[in-house]
């Protein structure tokens, strides 16, 4: 089962990217000639996603105008300009648009260059709704550019996850996942984080992970852009 719908988290303030983000939302910052938002949407399109829900809050008109020209996937805007809802709050607000089937979540401010079979396709192949509520895409520290904190999860032999608490043997959450909407049953409205649901799934033995193949890139500050662009060039050269 390949998800046909995705939630693209694009509502953040991008404070660390100032002064660039004084005048534009972070998802529209370009890396190697392509906006961060397009890096994600192109990956979703290649994975067969036909509909992407994009949430907006900061300078929303710019994102709405930008995606209007995009043909695939079809873009539906979830407007959060009244209140910033964080990762989970934004998804809960968008649930009526997302439907009852498992869907992708991607962060609009990180991206990756695949090596071999596309990571989102591999994520769909690894998904098993019978034993998973959430399946995270992961990467290791050596395959990441711009990541300046520790690891997030330790992976059991069967792919089940637990918090790594920074253990260098752990892996990084790479900003993409498949989730089943049942995890948001009785979820509160308002601002709250996806980490709450990660921890609930860990407690239930239903949080799993898949290590991506390729190079993952996050761009936190303006001075990180040259390193990100160099990483793109290097990863693309290896992928050829």
From TrEMBL:
Protein name, entry field: Nucleotidyltransferase family protein
Gene3D superfamilies according to UniProt: Spore Coat Polysaccharide Biosynthesis Protein SpsA, Chain A
Keyword tags: Magnesium, Nucleotidyltransferase, Transferase
PANTHER family for the chain: N-ACETYLMURAMATE ALPHA-1-PHOSPHATE URIDYLYLTRANSFERASE (PTHR43584:SF8), NUCLEOTIDYL TRANSFERASE (PTHR43584)
One Pfam family recorded for the sequence: NTP_transf_3
Transferase recorded as keyword: yes
Domain (MobA-like NTP transferase): residue spans on this chain: 6-135
């Amino acid at each position: 089962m390949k998800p046909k719908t995705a939630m693209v988290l694009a509502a953040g303030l991008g404070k660390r990217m100032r002064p660039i983000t004084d005048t534009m939302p972070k998802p529209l910052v370009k890396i190697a000639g392509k906006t961060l938002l397009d890096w994600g949407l192109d990956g979703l399109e290649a994975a067969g996603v036909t509909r992407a829900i994009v949430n907006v809050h900061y300078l929303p008109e710019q994102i709405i105008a930008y995606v209007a020209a995009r043909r695939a996937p079809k873009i539906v805007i979830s407007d959060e300009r009244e209140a910033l809802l964080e990762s989970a709050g934004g998804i809960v607000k968008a649930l009526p648009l997302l439907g009852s089937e498992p869907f992708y979540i991607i962060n609009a401010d990180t991206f990756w260059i695949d090596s071999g079979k596309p990571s989102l396709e591999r994520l769909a192949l690894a998904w098993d709704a019978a034993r998973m509520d959430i399946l995270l895409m992961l990467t290791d520290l050596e395959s990441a550019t711009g990541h300046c904190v520790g690891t997030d999860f330790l992976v059991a032999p069967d792919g089940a996850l637990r918090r790594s608490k920074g253990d260098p043997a752990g892996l990084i959450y790479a900003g993409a996942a498949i989730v089943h909407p049942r995890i948001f049953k009785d979820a509160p409205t308002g601002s709250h984080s996806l980490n709450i649901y990660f921890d609930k799934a860990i407690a239930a033995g239903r949080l799993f992970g898949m290590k991506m193949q390729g190079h993952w890139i996050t761009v936190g500050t303006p001075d990180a852009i040259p390193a990100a662009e160099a990483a793109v060039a290097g990863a693309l050269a290896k992928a050829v």
